[in-house]
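User: My instructor asked us to take a sequence, write out its structure as tokens, and then describe one feature of it. I'm not sure where to start. Here is the sequence I was given:
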Amino acid sequence: MLFIDLEFTGLDPAIHEIVEIAALVVSQPNFEITNSYYTKVTPEHIATADPKALRIINYSPQSWSGSISLSQALTEVSALAPDCLLAGWGVQNEWDFLNANLSRLNLPYFYSHHLLEISTLAFAKLYSNPQVQFLNLKRVADYYKIPLDHHKPDSDIRATYEIFKKLI
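Assistant: Let's start with the prediction itself. The structure tokens for your sequence are:
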């Protein structure tokens, strides 16, 4: 199982880019972290970025100075967990961006066609709980007292993983 969180330069996989990747390889059936990955990805078309997205991720050319190409990043992630199940908070977004970019770069798909949406698990368990009025990552992390530095993919994915463990 691969818990994955990406940050993008916007929400449209046809024009926006992946600029950060964080992943946790989690064993089954004990759900222990066996490996992790984090990198910043060099944007190729920063002019098409949504300014709001760049503010959210605190993008600057200086802070991305050690970034790597998307092709290299995806190749490295694929080596971590071949044929894995992707898991994440709103992992459909990651799925859409991964599919678009793996196809564009002519790289193999490294994951199965199934997804594990942790937000859906949270909804099923917490929807009637009056202490959690809106089921987003921050509010659910707060409810479970899990630390979160929101929109930092390494923090987001670790919080998502900890929430998953509370929900199962």
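For the description part of your assignment, you could build on this observation: Residues 147 and 159 are 7 Å apart (CA to CA). Try explaining in your own words what that tells you about the chain.
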